[in-house]
Amino acid sequence: MKKQIAILGSTGSIGTQALEVIEEHSDLYEVYCLTANNRVKELAMQARKFRPAAVVIANESHYEELKDMLDDMPDVKVYAGMRAIDEIVEAEPIDMVLTAMVGFAGLSPTIHAIKAHKKICLANKETLVVAGELICRLAAEYRSPIIPVDSEHSAIFQSIAGEGDNAIEKILLTASGGPFRNFTKDRLATVTQADALQHPTWDMGTKITIDSATMMNKGFEVIEAKWLFGVEPDKIQVLVHPQSIIHSAVQFCDGAVKAQLGVPDMRLPIQYAFSYPDRIHLRGDRLDLFKHPLEFFEPDMDKFRCLALAFEAIRKGGNMPCIVNAANEIVNKGFLDGRCGFLQMSDIIEATMQHVTFDSKPDYDTYVATDSEARRVAAELMG
Asked: Is 10 one of the annotated binding-site residues?
């Protein structure tokens, strides 16, 4: 029987590549539900091609437009709103939920899917950044497996497969370094949105591409790795690896290091999350090590302050990572809209960390309140 998949954020980079995987393996997988935030036309086109049981548009103002577009497809139910996404992931036929929504918005539907005992294919890193302790506790309580989709965390997951209780000595988390790896700090002060969106290796969505340029994305991945693999941040080493061939590695207590290598192709970790523990054929390029030198550099924490702030946040714990995430969402959008400079982003995040109410033992309601307060503070600081 085909596995039924719900894709949250189907019109984004991860969502569209997941649909490519499903299309290649239509004998194994079937789309049960597709969701998007605002991209009505793309969602309607996907619905026509994959014929899911349901589609949800998060922005309720687009509901009538989407319903009209799919008026001749009565078998595809059309819903709108964030609450509808929370409810659809609980549908009984769904086997796994790919959480590819961007930002804090992915937290609530992920919690609902976990409580419905669904397998979580986690591509929304903010879920663990904001509420890692809560998510891990709920996943254990409801016996809902979480399989990482981020290329780095998938690489770590693949490297520890079969290792049982063997102790991890260190996680080696690789980073491309983004488009500004070789820029001086003075030069960073004048970079533009267009400059930041020119990622040298990966083709990703707008927000994550900016986060990669600031290296906040890597900071979030450090936090994510702590919760996924139970490793303290002092045992997570970030290595700048411009070729993005070694997607990450694990060093064990005997000094042995296991790594996952491959061409930069997000379909691989997406498919592995779907098929785990099995591996199935994937069309695409294969790695030729003769064509790729492998280089590694220390990240410059002074130049890329966002990475340092993420380490600071996870060491502080409590709701501090939630504060950082909310402030980052504000400045990321602010930079894209031309309302703050590249280096200002980390300044505003750091100031927000100092101003927002700290809570050492947050619950879900605390996270929601913190997110709201931090967004307001960051927006005020940005002016």
From this structure: no
